[in-house]
């Protein structure tokens, strides 16, 4: 009798011991995840490597609990980073230059570059299979916010083709980011500069047709990058490295997989868009070599960005690359 009681007690103890560690380990794992908030300029398939990193669990693998917020505009993202509402911002690097020019006491520093081409497309009201940039003269175009990368790259292309953005056409820069597609669909404008999935959506509804890729026609430009305040980088170098490591794994994935495979992975990020459409858009970006192989923000890219800012009349004076870019995290992530 005593022996059977002892066996029962031992069995109960074993069950308790085997059950408790599972919960304890789970709680410990949650406790060990470091929280980081990322504010992105837009939620677009253009940023596929980032969503691969999220969906494949690369941030968790690095020990991070990453919260993603969409700011809808570089100005809003910058404000979130400067105020401490976001730890890391994902936007055009021009925003960091603007802040630096205004005398920011805690400069926002770029530490990783994701895209190397513009991600928007010129959409026309009618099909134009033989479109030339000269065809845009005298037309009414829905553009982007003054001083923002979409508008500046658009104007940069126009100037490369000898077209004066001020006198040769009319560009409406008054419509909020993300609202131009609806305005165009509603009948405003003869052309519109659109990101995906808006460009493809306009095609699908028969409201517009993609006639040119700004990414192809502008060449390689440092379109979007990740940045954080100097103080955050100094206080959380471990978070910065883990974050960059996760992103690099996302970059590796898109380099090593087909558009179909990439689309399937990121589909949960775009529940309102069917898989076939996501695949079409990914393929469009994939074929124009949108994503870098690594996250290193090269000096040549930064100087090209400042050339574009100068041409747009948005640069008071050039800023030293070393003042606003660090590459240590990206270089370590590649290793």
Features:
single chain; 335 residues; alpha/beta; D-Maltodextrin-Binding Protein, domain 2; five-stranded mixed β-sheet; 15% strand; disordered N terminus
Give a verbal description of the structure.
With 335 residues, this protein is α/β, with parallel strands linked by helices. It has 2 domains: 35-117 and 221-334, D-Maltodextrin-Binding Protein, domain 2 (3-Layer(aba) Sandwich), CATH 3.40.190.10; 121-218, D-Maltodextrin-Binding Protein, domain 2, CATH 3.40.190. It is 48% helix and 15% strand. It contains 16 helices and 10 strands. The chain has helices at 2-32, 48-55, 58-61, 74-83, 94-101, 149-160, 180-185, 198-204, 214-218, 230-235, 237-256, 259-266, 275-287, 299-311, 321-324, 328-334, and strands at 34-40, 64-70, 88-91, 108-115, 121-124, 140-142, 170-172, 191-194, 209-213, 224-229. It has a 5-stranded mixed beta sheet with strand order 2-1-3-10-4, with helices on both faces. Strand 6 (140-142), helix 6 and strand 7 (170-172) form a beta-alpha-beta unit. The longest helix is centred in the N-terminal third of the chain and has 31 residues, at 2-32. The protein starts with a helix and ends with a helix.
């Amino acid at each position: 009798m005593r022996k059977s009681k002892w066996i029962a007690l031992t069995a109960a103890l074993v069950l308790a011991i085997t059950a408790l560690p599972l919960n304890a380990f789970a709680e410990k794992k949650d406790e060990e995840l470091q929280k980081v908030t990322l504010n992105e300029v837009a939620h677009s398939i253009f940023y596929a490597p980032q969503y691969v990193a999220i969906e494949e669990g690369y941030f968790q693998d690095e020990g991070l609990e990453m919260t993603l917020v969409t700011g809808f505009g570089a100005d809003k993202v910058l404000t979130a980073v400067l105020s401490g509402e976001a730890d890391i911002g994902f936007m055009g690097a021009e925003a960091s230059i603007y802040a630096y020019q205004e005398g920011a006491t805690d400069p926002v520093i770029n530490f990783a570059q994701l895209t190397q081409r513009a991600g928007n497309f010129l959409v026309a009201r009618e099909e134009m299979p033989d479109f030339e940039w000269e065809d845009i003269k005298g037309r009414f175009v829905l553009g982007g916010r003054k001083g923002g990368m979409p508008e500046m790259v658009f104007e940069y292309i126009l100037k490369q083709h000898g077209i004066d953005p001020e006198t040769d056409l009319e560009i409406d820069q008054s419509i909020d980011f993300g609202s131009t597609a609806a305005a165009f669909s509603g009948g405003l404008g003869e052309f519109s500069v659109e990101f995906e999935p808006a460009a493809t959506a306009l095609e699908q509804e028969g409201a517009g047709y993609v006639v040119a890729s700004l990414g192809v026609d502008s060449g390689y430009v440092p379109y979007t990058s990740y940045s954080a305040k100097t103080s955050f980088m100094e206080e959380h170098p471990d978070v910065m490295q883990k974050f960059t490591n996760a992103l690099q794994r996302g970059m590796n994935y898109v380099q090593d997989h087909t558009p179909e495979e990439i689309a399937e992975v990121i589909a949960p990020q775009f529940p309102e868009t069917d898989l076939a459409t996501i695949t079409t858009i990914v393929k469009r970006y994939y074929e124009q070599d949108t994503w870098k192989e690594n996250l290193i923000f090269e000096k040549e890219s930064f100087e090209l960005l400042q050339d574009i800012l100068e041409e747009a009349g948005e640069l008071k004076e050039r800023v030293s690359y070393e003042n606003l870019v660090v590459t240590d995290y990206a270089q370590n992530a590649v290793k």
